[in-house]
Amino acid sequence: MQSEVAHSPSVLLVEAFYGGSHKQLIDLLKENVDGCSVFTLPAKKWHWRARTAALYFSQTIPACPSYRVLFSSSVLNLCELVALRPDLARLKKVLYFHENQLVYPVRKDQDRDFHLVSDVVVFNSLFNMDSFLSSIPSFLKKIPDHRPTDLDHLIRPKCLVLSYPVHFPDVSRLLPKHKLLRRPAVPFHVDDITTAAPGEHQQISGDEVMRRSEEDPRQPTSGPADQNPHGEGDPADQNPGDPADQQRPLHIVWPHRWEHDKNPELFFNTLLKLKEKQLDFHLSVLGETFTDVPEIFSKVRCLLDSNILSWGYLSSKEEYLQVLCQADVVVSTANHEFFGVAMLEAVHCGCFPLCPKALVYPEIFPAQYLYSTPEQLCKRLQGLCRRPDVARRHVVAVDTASFSWASLKPHFQALLVNERP
Length: 421
What we know:
- The chain has 421 residues and is of the alpha/beta class.
- The protein has helices spanning 20-32, 46-60, 78-84, 86-89, 126-140, 151-155, 177-181, 190-193, 206-214, 235-238, 243-247, 264-276, 296-301, 317-326, 341-348, 361-364, 374-386, 388-393, 405-415; strands at 2-4, 11-18, 36-42, 69-73, 92-97, 120-123, 159-161, 250-254, 281-285, 308-311, 329-331, 352-356, 370-371.
- It has 2 domains: 2-166 and 405-415, Rossmann fold (3-Layer(aba) Sandwich), CATH 3.40.50; 172-403, Rossmann fold (3-Layer(aba) Sandwich).
- A 7-stranded mixed β-sheet has the order 1-3-2-4-5-6-7.
- Strand 8, helix 12 and strand 9 (281-285) form a beta-alpha-beta unit.
């Protein structure tokens, strides 16, 4: 158990699952908000943390009259904690939902937990909030009798959406030359892309990406969609059909947890179809592994051995970013995602994203990066394997800067002041 107590602290940060994005958020708040005391438990045994962490923290968090705000992720049973520690009940309580259990694809429906007491309920995406609130009525119907009513209507006024703040490091030194050449000089907004004036940077549409990737590889890719932000011709246009861009196999990266809810079966089955069609590609499979790794990983590793560049979790952030910078396409096949830090990190590193047209993805990614069916995913990857230069010349129309800590810091600081809504 980790605990850090500030001098005359005013903000109590409690994290029952101190790992991954949960850890990153707590660390950001601790480093950037004055007067924080931090109490955490290691990121192990999620269900045990959800069921018992409140009891543990009730015994280990010291009484402190200067506390004004309590911030916790939804893993913690805040109801139990404030019941066991009445002195904490008076604080402004902020509960942050990285995910929600009402729509989590659990194996057994009775495994779901439900507990909520908070002054402010914060969700990392609109999809997270809407899916949570809309699932409450059906969840309550499982209660045999004496059901509470209108809980969703009671909770909604307390809710707000505040994107998860991603730390985007400067990766310029890790980017290959072709990514540096097409990197926007300043952050841009998706809404600005389609209205670019002649001579300014414009974006290739989804249909255009598909058309170009299906063209004869011997034909150059050119036109205003490939100009750089300064209005000068892209060096790739000055040398159409750069042999290095065309001949080097497409590098596909899958940077997700090795768990069933990320649907690795769909991803690997798609890659096996590419191999059946004798399409060449390179592959990096990253992400953390836990106790139960889906069998598909061991089954396909030998089948894809000749394609693999990197396989397994990289504990070094530098090495992880280096792989993302060298990759061309990042793929999500998730059937459970409320934000998707790994996808945004990959886009920051210049990868072309392909995501399901579902979950949180339409909220973040324009339609040109979304697929609706496994067949569409396979078709998109087939086209990009045949024309890897299309992915390498494309500037992704996602404003990652709006999800950065620099942009979101003022909102989190305002959240942690002692003012009840």
